[in-house]
Amino acid sequence: MAASRQAVWGDGHTASICSGKETLMNSNGFRPGVAPGTGRTRPGAQSGAMSGGVEAQGILDSRLLPDSEFLKLWDSIIVDQQLKDRLLSQAILSFTLRPTVDKAAIPLHGVILLVGEPGTGKTSLARGLAARTAEVFGKNSNFTYLEVEPHALASAALGKSQRAVTELLGTTIAEPALRGPLVVLLDEVETLAADRSKLSLEANPIDVHRATDAVLAQLDQLAARYPRLLFVATSNFPRAIDAAFVSRADLVLNIGMPNAQACTQILTDAVQALAKHYTGAGKILSDSRFRTAAELCVGLDGRRIRKIVPAACTFDKETALDPNRLTAELLLRAVQHEKGVSAGIQEETR
Predict the structure, then answer these.
(1) Structure confidence by residue, pLDDT tens digits, 209-246
(2) Structure confidence by residue, pLDDT tens digits, 20-32
(3) φ/ψ of residue 39, rounded to 5
(4) Which CATH number fits domain 48-254: 3.40.50.300, 3.30.1330.10, 3.90.226.10, 3.40.190.10?
């Protein structure tokens, strides 16, 4: 008989875990949002972009979770497995612990902050985390995902940014948080919560300061009122984020550049993806020059490494017309070109 265990969700639900499959059930043994004996999900529920039904200023996307596209993102991001495990555990803990513990003794805000260089997979990891967390609690657990577009909130008019932030967090996000568990992505969070200590009132409108004030005030209010609300924030510039926002994060993780092993895995995965449609390209994986190319990728971010595979098809029009003709020599040439470009950019920014 397979061993089973239960994880208690803060509002009385339990996630029954058996043989690696998790299903969320309430105290009566039924899954939330599912009529007893029917197994039916929310009427008209569908996955994909904007399936969450929230359309408002500052909202880039809303989805019902778990979302199959986001689950693929979770699997595609190659980082240390321990980092992934801790990230997922923190997200789960947010929904199990926050509704029950004394907030004064354990001040959890429901905020995870991912920082690191551009192209390291922070945004994809955040989206994947939302779907994976919902999957742990069961696909009928009524999780919703929102993605904030912070640049849409910026305004040159005095006071409007502050009001837009208050409307977004206090109303647009609060309303779906009332209906069920919600995961919100704050991409490029430094745009919303700029470090006030580094802002000049002469060079930066006072509205920017007030917008950061509004973000912090709303985070406190939301944390107190909605224990089934989780924010996942990302930033390429952690030093530009206000210290008070970082202090509110329950977990801060640095997503680093891929090491040699990860570079090989990423490049292999990208070639295999191409070979699914152009089988001839798969032969380069057994070429000794492929390993050389993978080793040269150290120092590049994951996004650039994946782009190397199609870039290698651009050195002659025959390969562009038929990627089956891709060779390890062309791949190596593409890596060398990318490393040269990267070195040139770094030199210019010094």
Answers:
(1) 788 899 999 999 999 999 999 999 999 999 999 999 99
(2) 334 344 433 323 3
(3) 70, 15
(4) 3.40.50.300
